[in-house]
């Protein structure tokens, strides 16, 4: 088997495994890691009021939490071979990608929204976004869920596939650990302003290329001209260097308006408007899910064709 084909086949097998089995209901590795992250933060971040001390404590926390697990992934790739290695790689990528889980969370919002059950839609969207769900109307719920699908599609699905294809099992493990640390520590508040800076910067760095590949993928599969225009004009105004291109291109591809003011517990946050076209509705959530799914198919088709072309030419 050609060397280029192995990671592609493993990636496809991982997505199929995720589709058939889904996320573990109990003992999910990332849940256990999240519990460890909480304890590590309590142990190290005792003086958040001291910027230098808090900053270096955050670096130490990232190293303690990531180095051993990435080392285990590296050891598995060095010591295992044949079917045992393929099984470990496939399982690891399937746990990282969670394409089925993304769709399940999105449809848990979109379906009650479509039948007019706003209480259930608000309850469900509160599981996947941090904004004040009780203050959202129908358009607000649809926009929140759609934004979550587009952004998490980039963070969990496409970035995980990218890092596995580029750096194998250690790459995908490091990415998912850093992404989890950023989700838990990357807040701009008094406690995490300095402690979480290392995790946030590493996450920005690791997602820079995957985010732009994701934005291009969304653009190619929707209204390409509008998506590229929104990406170019609107993404720079977004506060995240990676979420901006992804969500602007995704909104443009779907021909819908996302972003804008959003209610949080601390008050209404004024965010730039993303995309152009109609207002989001129940169908927008499903369209965002399908955009991610079709994007994964496009990646696999492109990789297979590129590999076959290279094999024929060289």
UniProtKB/TrEMBL annotation:
The chain crosses the membrane at residues 55-76, 156-178, 296-313. GO terms for cellular component: plasma membrane. It is a multi-pass membrane protein. It is found in: Cell membrane. Keywords: Cell membrane, Cobalamin biosynthesis, Membrane, Transmembrane, Transmembrane helix. One of its GO terms (molecular function) is ABC-type vitamin B12 transporter activity. It comes from the Bacteria. One of its GO terms (biological process) is cobalamin biosynthetic process. InterPro entries: Cobalamin_biosynth_CobD/CbiB. Converts cobyric acid to cobinamide by the addition of aminopropanol on the F carboxylic group. This is Cobalamin biosynthesis protein CobD. It comes from Marinobacter persicus.
